[in-house]
Amino acid sequence: MARRVLHHNSSNHHPNNVTSPLLSLSLALLCLLSAPAASAQLTRTHYAGVCPNVEGIVRGAVQKKIQQTFVTIPATIRLFFHDCFVQGCDASVMVASAGSNRAEKDHPDNLSLAGDGFDTVIKAKQAVDAVAGCRNKVSCADILALATRDVIALVINLIIMIHPFIH
């Protein structure tokens, strides 16, 4: 049986090396979130006439949740991944089972999702719905996408603050 030998490259562990798993994950998710839609005509101003401050409302709720627990960041990113991986980014992972109908949230692969990811979306949705003109106008799928974008942006900003030579 052939044995694979991995060579240690000490340059990979240099403190000035910015190629970290967290940075790679953040950049990959940022690209995923900013990629143009292939079939839908999505716009950045979709909610401009209905709930013009939705992004600020979600960002505020996300920042508040992050101040409560740092687990919000990985939990929200993982929740978004699990939601989008199965049947598209539709927030179906947020729906609880009812009766004999077993929801995506209760699938064995999703049982380990941290409650802080769900709580982030729920609190952001409550904050959005607290604004009269926004009530029941913004989908949970969009709120999950915005919240994920915001936690990734925060991680990138933290990395830049720690490693100012990145930009």
Automatic annotation (TrEMBL):
Q: Alphabetically, which GO biological process terms does the record hold?
A: response to oxidative stress
The chain positions of domain Plant heme peroxidase family profile read 41-167
Extent of the signal sequence: 1-40
Q: Which residues are Ca(2+)-binding?
A: D83, V86, G88, D90, S92, E104
User: What Gene3D superfamilies does the record point to?
Assistant: 1.10.520.10
Q: What is its EC number?
A: 1.11.1.7
- Record's keyword annotation contains Heme: yes
Keyword RNA-binding found: no
Give the record's cofactor note, including how many are bound. Binds 2 calcium ions per subunit.
Active-site residues, Swiss-Prot/TrEMBL: H82 (proton acceptor)
Question: By its UniProt entry, which PROSITE patterns does this protein fall under?
Answer: PEROXIDASE_4
**Swiss-Prot/TrEMBL catalytic activity:** 2 a phenolic donor + H2O2 = 2 a phenolic radical donor + 2 H2O
Instruction: Show the disulfide pairing.
Output: C51-C134, C84-C89
Instruction: Tell me the GO molecular function terms.
Output: heme binding; lactoperoxidase activity; metal ion binding
InterPro entries named among the record's database cross-references? Haem_peroxidase, Haem_peroxidase_sf, Peroxidase_pln
Q: Which UniProt keywords apply?
A: Calcium, Disulfide bond, Heme, Iron, Metal-binding, Oxidoreductase, Peroxidase, Signal
Question: Which co-factors does it depend on?
Answer: Ca(2+); heme b
Record site: Transition state stabilizer: R78
Protein family: Belongs to the peroxidase family.
Q: What is the protein named?
A: peroxidase
